[in-house]
Amino acid sequence: MSASPSPREDLERIIESAKRLGVQIDEEEALQWLTAMAASQADEVQVDAKHGVYGQRISLLDFSPQDLAYFREIGKIVEIPDRAGAVETALALSGSAAQSKIQTHPGDCDFFERVNIKAPTREEACKILADVIHDKAMSTRSGPTYRLMEVKFGTYPFAGKREGQAFKKGGFISWNADDIEKGSVWVEDETGKAVALNWNEVANDPGWTKMDWVVAHPPRRTLANASNNLDVTWESPDGEIVPLDGQLDPYFQEIYLEAESIPLFTKIAKHVAADAIDGYVAQLEHEVKKYITEHINYGKAAKRMYNVFRMNGRYVEAAYLRELFNEPATVLYQIASLLRTVDEASLPGSDISPETIAEQLDTLILEVVDVLEGEREKEIVKRLLRLRSLLADRAAVKQRQDEVTTAQDEVMQVVNDFFYERLILLPSIKEYMDGLRAGG
After folding, report:
1. Burial class (CB in 10 A: 0-12, 13-18, 19+), 362
2. d(CA 179, CA 183)
3. Sequential DSSP letters for 8-25
4. Which of 143, 179, 255, 360 has its CA 20 to 30 A from that of 239?
């Protein structure tokens, strides 16, 4: 059997491909990453004692502590707090926010929180969960630096319609702050009969639980979408750990923000399935296939392919993608996300400063001018300037949403073109995508 290529040999292959494709490579950083990856175990957990964070070792390689204080500040808004003797938590960054060393223009501030509830019964654990999410939603409903947008909690017990939109049995129920305050949402069942779904009643089948906010950071004069995806477990009196949504999430793309939560993480990690890596990769590949066939988004596909490749040992392809994320055009990915954030921060009832919103939009306009040129630049800038003029009228919701949707489509077309052109030019990545499209 021939020996595996060395990190130096892998680097030479990457440099050769990158030069041919016009992609800049930081050779020293790439070699350090390849060397570290070659010596890492996929499920190895490491603590960064200097910064008080921890996570999977290969995930820490992609995390920069430069913005740690910023993320911890937002974390105070989104985190579910502990309750002595009943609720223990471990808050982490996830998604592109956890890969801040390579994804210098993340789309959102994504958080992930393990919430372990100690209770005599599963039903009591579900009641406690309903209570803590209700308290978090009401306490962060609106303020000078945040606005709650949506909570996913509970599943539909039947198929029907909500405000004219069809939903399936078992689908996730979405709540806004008013819904949560009232404690119920009205829907129609399959016969057209109006039915009220009660917050406390749907708690017995919480399903996928997630909370979303718009947050502002006045010192930076920026806005962001911040989400907290909750992985909730019930710890029974005999110590059994049961995931309330039926699935215990793995920990392969998370950076935990407080070293004090290591005991909880360790307790939960013992129950992660032995084949969790295979399941994680399979899920990512399913998403990659979706974004290159049904819902075309080559930027999202590239981010997921990077995580597939770093987990299954295809380090040359992963290292190449790392460099793509630092290309100037990738700032447009962040711009597309922030356009919706600007609109949401401007909705009636928002307490976020109009000055902060306007300054964020001004920054987006300058970034478009810096990255694009020609007709595309003119059209997108013109649309953003029109959007800026609408910010003064917070009641102009429909007009703003129309401008945002069109501007997002135009920006994402540029992002799609950028990633598609560079992905297909590396033969091994093109072959991988072709295999997924063919059903492989």
Report:
1. middle
2. 6
3. HHHHHHHHHHHHHHT---
4. 255
**The pLDDT value given to residue 252:** 85
Structure tokens at 111: 């958080």
Question: Do 165 and 190 meet the contact criterion of CB atoms below 8 Å apart?
Answer: no
DSSP string, 90-102: EEEE-GGGGGTTT
Pairing, β 172-175 against β 194-198: unpaired
Contact predicate 301/420, CB 8 Å? no
**Residue 182: other Cβ atoms inside 10 A:** 13
8: how many CB neighbours lie within 10 A of its CB? Answer: 10
User: How far, CA to CA in Å, does 114 sit from each of 80, 87, 346?
Assistant: 9, 10, 31
Tokens of 289: 């296939």
35-54 in b/e burial notation, b at 16+ Cβ within 10 A? eebeebebbebeebeeeebb
CA pair distance 324, 255, nearest whole angstrom: 22
* Token pair of 168 as six digits: 């399936």
- pLDDT value of residue 218: 67
Local mean pLDDT, 10-residue blocks, the chain (440 residues): 63 70 72 77 82 91 89 95 97 90 78 98 98 98 95 97 96 97 96 96 96 86 91 96 91 92 94 86 95 92 93 87 82 84 88 88 89 86 87 80 88 90 90 89
CA atoms within 13 A on the CB side of 384: 29
* Identity of residue 237: P
- Sort residue 42 into left (φ over 0), alpha (ψ -120 to 50) or beta: alpha
| Token digits of residue 127 | 């009641």
Sign, CA torsion 62/64/65/69 = negative
Cα separation, 188 vs 173, in Å, equals 13
φ, ψ at 147 (rounded to 5°): -150, 125
How many Å apart are CA 57 and CA 41, to the nearest integer?
A: 8
Angstrom distance (rounded) from CA 211 to CA 228: 5
Write down the residue that tokens 């996913």 correspond to. Answer: 152
User: What are the two backbone dihedrals, phi and then psi, of residue 396, each rounded to the nearest 5 degrees?
Assistant: -80, 55
pLDDT of residue 21: 63
With residue 209 as reference, give the H or E element that holds it.
strand 209-217
Looking at the chain, how many residues does it have? 440
Interacting residues of 188 by C-beta distance below 8 A, sequence separation 6+: 160, 161, 162, 194, 195
